[in-house]
Model the fold of this input.
Amino acid sequence: MTREEIEDSMEDFGRAARRAQEAGADGVELHGANGYLITQFLSSAINDRTDEYGGSLENRARFVRGIVASIRKHAGQDFHLQMKINAYDHDNVITINPFAKQGNNLDDTIRICRWLEADGVDAFHISVGSLFPHPLNPPSPLGEAGFPLEFAARSYGAMLASGKDTFRNYLLFRYRLLRPIFHFIWNRLKKKYPTVEGISADYARAIKKEVKVPVLCTGGFQNAALIRDKIAHGYFDGVTIARALIANRDLVKVWASGRDLPERPCTHCNKCLVYAPSYPLGCYELARYGGDYDRMIREVYEVFDPPLSGLDER
Done:
């Protein structure tokens, strides 16, 4: 990006926040994790610029700080603004290159969060992993169960123009003889961090100790007892959930009924993830539907024709 493009981009973020505000939104979240544009500036493993937007951590944070200033200019100080950020990049685990950089570490992220809090960010959303998918994001079991390559091969072709490593990934997914290479790369960090639910909790806790604004945490959450325990012990102020709500849309109602887990918890198989580039978002774990493929497809496609709820009927 040229300097002019960077300045235009920062201004565009501010204008987008104002449009969201005018549309009735209570706030917005900047996605500064998992390989998106803000990550590409922040991460020492990705950012190789030699101007004022590269090099030192202060320079690499200049882009996101400019975005925050632009949002405050266009949407005001009272419009909620939160930031999703990598606690730790772990970039070097995605490659078999022993000289690859690991990217930002926890100390770097804490410094960035302090700056952003001073700039007017109202909350932080803690994730991990400088790319997506990443062995720690989404968290998953070891082996094929954690990242189903057979399914990924069917949909990943839609991503071929979206990144510098996507063609390599597609080959690893597509050809059976190459899949052990992917599993080696994917699982070597999983063996070090085998936790699935709450994988980022310790990172969130460390950041929460250093900032005064609320801290949210992502990472495979679906057990209400675990969430309550982590909140009670000061790890974070709340959690964010995706896959568990895809598997069980009524998860919050299950918790409200007094149960900590749904009858059929999400298995973190990630089939919803690998299908998402080419198919409607939904749970594609056939075993959850008793092996009934037609039932699975009907439920996935209900998003286009949802059944009436009790409120709608009234």
In short: DSSP finds 15 helices and five strands in the chain.
